[in-house]
Amino acid sequence: MAARNKYVNKLHGKHIVIFGGTSGVGFCVAEASIEHGANVTILSSDSNKVDAAQARLVASYPEAKNRVRGLPIDLGAPDVEDQLVSSFEKMQPLDHIIFTAGTFKFDSEDWTQPRSDLDRIRNTANVRVIAPFLIAKHAPKYMASNSPACSITLTSGATAERPMGQGMAMHTMYSTGLYGLAKNLCLDIAPLRVNLVSPGPIDTELWDTIPEKEMMFAHLKEKLPIKEIPTPENVAEAYIYCMKDRGLTGAIISTHGGGILV
């Protein structure tokens, strides 16, 4: 009797679009999607990074060369809606959209102080919060079907469940706002599905510029119940699940190594 692959082939032939797919978790979601037989488009604001990431994917999966493409897009630009519509027209039809884009600067700046850098706050919000809203506004027209077979998965952070500490109020605001956005969007654009993945600390290249990385990670390893720092390859599995489960919408998938419990 022939083997059945009805579970592992759920994403086979689907078109998965990944905003922020050139590095970190987004890049690993692209890898996982390719391994599931999907067609993948990665997007980022830096065209050089798009080209480099696309080349890395093709080098790792040469048999999938014709299933991988990349496009530049500046989600913080004033004309972001025009860019989104133009990109969607080039990429359609879309089966799943993954949003992992956004910047997160690790420093000790307290943004709650009177002289906070408002331009920086607004620019970060434009990418992390406003862009996902605009994607959900325009994407339905370009999805492969108006059904739960198609989905959008956003990304927040565990700070929405447990604040990380002083000076993180703005980051917590973005993260918490995305929780509400995902839950309401699943009603606004139903029957398309909308979910959100909420990671804790992840060992990505984002941390490599932090001088205290080794010390911080050593402390986290002792603190986290799993006694290790989650990798982007592990966290990518949450996004794969969100795409494959047609019954999942309005859900928050937390993958934080137990960090919010200790």
UniProtKB/TrEMBL annotation:
This is Uncharacterized protein. It holds the Pfam family SDR. The keyword Oxidoreductase applies. GO terms for molecular function: oxidoreductase activity. CDD domains: SDR_c (cd05233). Belongs to the short-chain dehydrogenases/reductases (SDR) family. Keywords: NADP, Oxidoreductase. InterPro entries: NAD(P)-bd_dom_sf (IPR036291), SDR_DHRS6-like (IPR051122), SDR_fam (IPR002347), SDR_PhqE-like (IPR057571).
